[in-house]
């Protein structure tokens, strides 16, 4: 599988990413290199390899799941800059381009 420059233009448009025209050919090479590497990895025979669930042979220690009456909501409300009806109010960080209603 290879991606053409037209494919990357479409993907960039769908993802709302601005990519300069001069960058498209090098981007296509990089993406195709990554795809080639993934295809090489898929060709590796892993039938005799056991799944690795955790890199270290350790057991997770879990605490007992006990119901307790602990609510620090009032403490959090006191230290939060803006807090309303159990919600933190934060400034808008992503501009969607739409007007607030």
UniProtKB/TrEMBL annotation:
EC number: 6.3.5.-
Reaction equations catalysed: L-glutamyl-tRNA(Gln) + L-glutamine + ATP + H2O = L-glutaminyl-tRNA(Gln) + L-glutamate + ADP + phosphate + H(+); L-aspartyl-tRNA(Asn) + L-glutamine + ATP + H2O = L-asparaginyl-tRNA(Asn) + L-glutamate + ADP + phosphate + 2 H(+)
Keyword Protein biosynthesis carried by entry: yes
Any one GO molecular-function label of the UniProt entry: ATP binding
Ranges that cross the membrane: none
Enzyme class: ligase
Keywords from the named record: ATP-binding, Ligase, Nucleotide-binding, Protein biosynthesis, Transferase
Record-linked Gene3D superfamilies: Glu-tRNAGln amidotransferase C subunit, N-terminal domain
Record GO biological process: glutaminyl-tRNAGln biosynthesis via transamidation; regulation of translational fidelity; translation
NCBIfam families noted in UniProt: gatC
Subunit: Heterotrimer of A, B and C subunits.
Record function comment: Allows the formation of correctly charged Asn-tRNA(Asn) or Gln-tRNA(Gln) through the transamidation of misacylated Asp-tRNA(Asn) or Glu-tRNA(Gln) in organisms which lack either or both of asparaginyl-tRNA or glutaminyl-tRNA synthetases. The reaction takes place in the presence of glutamine and ATP through an activated phospho-Asp-tRNA(Asn) or phospho-Glu-tRNA(Gln).
Family: Belongs to the GatC family.
Protein name in the entry: Aspartyl/glutamyl-tRNA(Asn/Gln) amidotransferase subunit C
Phylogenetic classification of the source organism: Bacteria, Pseudomonadati, Pseudomonadota, Gammaproteobacteria, Legionellales
């Amino acid at each position: 599988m290879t991606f053409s420059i037209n494919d990357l233009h479409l993907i960039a448009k769908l993802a709302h990413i601005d990519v300069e025209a001069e960058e498209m050919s090098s981007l296509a090479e990089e993406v195709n290199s990554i795809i080639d590497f993934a295809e090489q990895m898929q060709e590796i025979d892993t039938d005799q390899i056991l799944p690795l669930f955790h890199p270290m042979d350790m057991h997770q220690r879990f605490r007992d799941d006990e119901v307790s009456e602990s609510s620090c909501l009032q403490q959090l409300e006191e230290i939060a800059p803006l807090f309303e009806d159990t919600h933190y109010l934060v400034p808008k960080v992503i501009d969607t381009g739409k007007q607030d209603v």
